[in-house]
Design brief:
58% of the residues lie in helices and 0% in strands. The chain is mainly α and 83 residues long. The protein has one domain. α1 packs across α3. The longest helix is centred in the first third of the chain and has 22 residues.
Length: 83
Amino acid sequence: MVPGPVSDSYDPEFSTGANADDVRHGVQCALMKIEDALGPELKNIVAVAQEAIDMEPSVTVMCFSEKDLRCLRFAALRGLESV
């Protein structure tokens, strides 16, 4: 017996597209705070990572809510999976 059709809004990880949208929105809101602090300039990530090893990094003080931090941790862990 073949299972019935799956809804277009079904997401295998988050169960629905709406739940995935909520997660995406949480990550985007936290990311906006980072972008506000760093400005629009993008830097090569390899150079940035090596800079942190070779010299004293500059410090930016920011405030994040628990929600922001949990969304950013999720995004960072996802990012590590792709490196």
